Write the structure tokens for this entry.
Amino acid sequence: MILQQIHDSVWAKRRLLIVIFFCAITSSHSQRWSPDSLQKELRNSRPDSNRARLMWQLASVTYVTNPDTAIQLAQTALYLAKRLKYLDGESRSLGILANSFMFIGNYPQALQLNLQKLQLEETRDRPRNLSSVLMNIGIIYRFQEDYDRALEYYSRADSVIAQRNVEDFKHNIALNIGDAYDRRGEFDSSYKYYKRSLIIARERADDDLIGKSMTGLAHIYRKTGNNAESLLTYRAAIDYLRAAGNDEELCEAALGLATLFENVKEPDSARYYGDLSFSIAKEDGFVSAEYDACEFLMSHYKNTKRIDSAFAYAEYSREWNDSLNSKAKIRQLQILSSNEQFRQRQLEEERLLAAKRRHEQLQLLLIGMFIPGLFVLTLLLSKQRIHIRVIKTLGILTLLFFFEYLTLWLHPTVAELTGHTPILEILIFVCVAAVLIPLHHRAEHVLINRLIQHRVFRGQTKKIHLAESVDEK
């Protein structure tokens, strides 16, 4: 079971690099980013949107070689982008985080992060980003062999790509949908999408894309018994892949052709292409392709009664499996470590946010205490010999502070009720203002007039007392 999981994980890593290279959250411009130059810029940067950008860029060029560092960088960039309300940085950081977790085989965490990114992108008009995250969610479900859910998200991505003409992803989505239908055994549908991907690849005159599409089509021809067409397509795919220098895909095409020759009882050709796939994979370190070719050759030599050769590949396979089991344990530890690292950083951010909320609540409390204090001060000063304009100004300030405080206090509730929709927030506050402004003027008029009347009454009282004392004299 562990062996199969790791085999799938290694295969997933390979397909991740082949199939979604152009639909990762970072664009093709990321190839120009240098880790050294990014680190140098990052050391001299301030905690602003530029720093968040540098962090997710650095994470994007290091997650293959050092996923733990990439996770740390992207997570820090994510929290910084959230504090700055830098939506593009938040989206890109989520994408890099998801790709980092997907690369090490931590699919649940990658799925969760991609779903967060999807929620963000659904509120923005960025069709390339939206189609990218939909496709990546589909790829995660495909790695988990949930082909129905994979096709659901692939279809949504395909719809966005077609409607908004996202040219970069048209080949990728067709190839991914064809692969999903192939693995479900729905070869007619798979053929349709592989054929579409081939048309797009030929329009671009891209040997690498043509080779990939033709490899998929050759698989379908072989599985549906069209051996002649499969043979021609495999050979053409191999030529294109050799011209493009794509040895990894070449291993898959060669092994497919070896399987075809095995099926039609041509053992020499089957052995030739099986050896070709194995030798290229072993030389270039394509462990998944190496494992597949080794299994094929072991079965082939067993069927042709060449026991010594079959035993040699069986022994090689056993040693390879032992090594893979060790790698499985290391990968499981890496997943646990990455989860704990992510959780600790999340807790740290929650503590910072809690401290910020406490600070804001304290400020609101002080403002709430200041307003009645200012009102009491106004009342006390109204009894003193101070110019009436001072009293009037303090009264107006008290009322302004009160109504602004009320608006500030209501804003989070209104934002939550409206889902942070600006139009709805504006409409609600316009309605609130329509009620508060007349009340404000009414209260201002009543309060100020009463203060003035009180001053006038006191003045008149003093005059009366003065007149009475004069009469007595």
The chain has a mean pLDDT of 79. The first helix runs from residue 2 to 19. DSSP finds 18 helices and no strands in the chain. The CA atoms of residues 23 and 132 lie 5 Å apart.
